[in-house]
User: What shape does this take?
Amino acid sequence: MRFIADRMLGKLCTWLRILGYDTVYAADLGVKVEDEDRVILSFAAQESRILLTRDRDMIRAASRRGIRCVFVHSEEVMEQLKELIRYEPGINLEPVPCRCSECNGELRKVEKGEEAVLQAKSYVPMAKIGKCDFWLCKTCGRVYWEGSHWRNMRLQLQRLTKSCS
Assistant: This one.
């Protein structure tokens, strides 16, 4: 499953990337706001992506073009994920280190001997180097690791899973 999310769904876009889904965010397309809907629809059609939007006009236009789309009602991200699960029950709710949450680039595992890459980033906890796995975005260079933020995300996703049952 691959998605494209409109500007109203930036947090949902980030969460889908964290869950391992290739998700393009409209603001990252680099087009003028007045051209954005047209570009989003074309992009979704060309790449067979599921359009995620809170815009009723966009849903109508996507439906006319045969583009798979989901109208997201909620403004709260966990509720948005719940809505998406209703549409697509097979959505994975476990964080997967394979997409950059910032740019959607692919992640690769940092190998032994590449510690200098980690040490060059001021936000990487030096005490963790050599003690846990790290991933590097191939596109923007951002570094990821399973820290307390992963535990917090998993707790939120576990609560979401229980509420969907």
Remarks:
- The mean pLDDT is 93.
- The first strand starts at residue 2 and ends at 5.
